[in-house]
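Example 9 (inverse folding). The structure is encoded as follows.
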């Protein structure tokens, strides 16, 4: 690898912290080699105390290694010149609490030597990008943890860095923020930025990282391409929409000729909690519900976009959220792996074929490679190694990244649900022990165990305990109605519970602590005939728009009256309100004492004085 091809290169790095007397105390990192290729997203992982921060500090030039050599952007990390090309989000952002969001970025912009025009324009773009445009004039000290994190991210991007170092970038962010930051990382990666990140949230790293380095006890435990490290070499997966029972049985029969039935699994893919939650938030946002916290960020700031790549405008974060969300909705079991997202091309493909070994040179010669064939947005199928899905040999056009047009590859692998399994597994594999999983999108999940009878639930302990079990004959009976598997998004209107409250017809406004408002519609179906409408101005507790009904025997209490008096200190006699009041029991009948009446008058006087 030439010098231009990597951004960070370290060899034999070691850091020993010493005690007061200069005696070695802690070996924080030992003999670490690290190479971060240019334009890659590099994940640094390890448990607490593994040495991640120490390594980051060495890369940033904040610490000197006890031994070893390191170059960052072709220079010694302590060279001040390279700092201009680096952005850093520390684990904890130290920001001036009394400065507003805008002032903070202006302050750092000046330190970075940006001109005033640049500072102004980048500040606006960044605050919008990280979802803080509603808080630009609020002091950073008042921000929630997640908002502070977003602020730190904006600050790290202010100088449009070539190398971005992010220490726990998603820590403390809500799921929307996490997805946005991940999308932002992916987008920046696509635009040629090199990103080094650490996180304890492994799923987040998995979603974005190309390369991984895992530390434990200060030493490297594993390193390499995320794809090759994480791929399960012993399974193949093919995903497809629901097919008829007969087709599935045919497919299974075919599979059983070469695999023990206990190793075949059919399940309904679950939607991830992240997707479910994001859908929920999207629904609420679409309804126009408001929040005083951070909002969804916008696309990547214009100045962060690579000029040479303006055509990929649709990949800005805002769009990506829709895009990736949609992808996951369609294909819930496919994790949003970094490579899939990073390499996502216009998705006009119907047939997606992945094979980790096929991705590596010489893989075509390894017939046992586990193969994953997926049809766009729907079906996933896993077959065993040594099955006849060694597609690269038979079809060199198949891409490494699941974006080939449907008709470009193996026509017998077209995602025709009824035939896919049969045709992709013509029964020639010789390794029957491999596990196969067949899952149909959004509907059915099936697990079979080796040599057991698929028709018997008892004899097939691996049959999953979900909807498949509803068809007690476990011979792949597919439920026709999968409604119980559909995500049921909660609806604030429903949740405000028409018909069950004591005041059923009232349009209710509920606000959650400091953030969101839900509004429900009035329930026009109220059948409580014993209720009578009371003028809205007599319902001080409820909102003015509320058409609340009280029982006939409802007494106008002293308290109600006092509140009413407070609200209407001078009530003209000929107003509708006064007429309505006239139909109610007169004040003396309520048993107001002289003292109470004086009190009412005093309140009116006080109010009048207060107003004037
Ligand atoms: N300044 C220091 N003086 C002495 N020991 C230190 C110092 N900084 C770190 N260490 C020690 O070095 C080891 C690695 O620490 P480091 O902070 O790099 O771990 P980490 O992987 O970043 O952990 P975490 O995930 O908890 O942030 C730990 O045992 C830690 O106590």
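The amino acid assigned to each position is listed next.
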């Amino acid at each position: 690898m030439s010098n231009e091809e990597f951004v960070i290169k370290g060899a034999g790095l070691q850091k020993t912290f010493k005690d007061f007397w200069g005696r070695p105390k802690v070996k924080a990192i030992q003999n670490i080699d690290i190479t971060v290729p240019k334009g890659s997203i590099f994940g640094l992982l390890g448990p607490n105390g593994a040495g991640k921060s120490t390594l980051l500090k060495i890369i940033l030039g904040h610490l000197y290694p006890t031994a070893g050599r390191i170059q960052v952007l072709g220079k010694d990390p302590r060279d001040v010149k390279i700092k201009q090309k680096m952005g850093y989000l520390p684990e904890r952002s130290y920001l001036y609490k009394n400065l507003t969001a805008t002032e903070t970025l202006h302050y750092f912009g000046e330190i970075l030597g940006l001109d005033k025009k640049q500072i102004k324009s980048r500040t606006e773009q960044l605050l919008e990008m990280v979802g803080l445009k509603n808080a630009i004039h609020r002091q950073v000290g008042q921000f929630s943890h997640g908002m502070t994190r977003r602020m730190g991210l904006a600050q790290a991007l202010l100088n449009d860095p070539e190398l971005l170092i992010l220490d726990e970038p998603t820590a403390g962010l809500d799921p929307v923020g996490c997805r946005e930051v991940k999308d932002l990382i992916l987008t920046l990666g696509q635009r040629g930025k090199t990103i080094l990140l650490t996180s304890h949230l492994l799923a987040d790293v998995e979603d974005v990282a190309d390369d991984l380095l895992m530390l434990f006890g200060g030493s490297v435990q594993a390193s390499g391409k995320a794809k090759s490290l994480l791929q399960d070499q012993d399974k193949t997966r093919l995903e497809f929409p629901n097919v008829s029972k007969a087709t599935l049985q045919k497919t299974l029969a075919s599979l059983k000729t070469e695999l023990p039935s206990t190793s075949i699994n059919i399940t309904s893919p679950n939607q991830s909690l992240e997707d479910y939650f994001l859908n929920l938030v999207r629904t609420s946002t679409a309804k126009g519900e408001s929040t005083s916290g951070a909002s969804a960020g916008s696309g990547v700031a214009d100045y962060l976009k690579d000029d040479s790549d303006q055509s990929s405008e649709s990949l800005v974060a805002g769009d990506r959220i829709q895009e990736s969300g949609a992808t996951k909705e369609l294909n819930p079991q496919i994790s949003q792996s970094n490579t899939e997202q990073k390499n996502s091309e216009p998705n006009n493909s119907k047939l997606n074929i992945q094979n980790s070994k096929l991705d590596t040179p010489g893989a075509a010669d390894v017939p046992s490679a586990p193969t994953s064939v997926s049809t766009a947005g729907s079906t996933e199928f896993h077959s065993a190694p040594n099955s006849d899905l060694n597609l690269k040999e038979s079809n060199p056009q198949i891409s490494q990244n699941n974006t080939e047009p449907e008709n470009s590859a193996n026509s017998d692998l077209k995602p025709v649900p009824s035939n896919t399994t049969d045709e992709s597994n013509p029964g020639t594999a010789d390794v029957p022990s491999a596990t196969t999983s067949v899952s149909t999108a959004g509907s059915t999940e099936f697990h079979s165990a080796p040599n057991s009878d698929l028709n018997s639930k008892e004899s097939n302990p691996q049959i999953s305990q979900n909807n498949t079990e509803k068809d007690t004959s476990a011979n792949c009976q597919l439920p026709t109605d999968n409604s119980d598997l559909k995500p049921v998004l909660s609806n604030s209107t429903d949740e405000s519970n028409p018909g069950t409250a004591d005041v059923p017809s009232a349009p209710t406004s509920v606000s959650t602590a400091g953030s969101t408002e839900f509004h429900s519609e009035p329930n026009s179906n109220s059948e409580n005939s014993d209720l009578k409408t009371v003028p809205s101005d007599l319902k001080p507790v409820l909102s003015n728009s509320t058409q609340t009904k009280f029982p006939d025997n409802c007494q106008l209490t002293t308290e109600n009256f006092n509140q009413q008096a407070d609200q209407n200190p001078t009530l003209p006699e000929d107003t509708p309100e006064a007429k309505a009041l006239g139909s109610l029991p007169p004040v003396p009948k309520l048993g107001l004492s002289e003292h109470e009446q004086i009190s009412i008058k005093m309140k009116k006087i006080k109010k009048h004085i207060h107003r004037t």
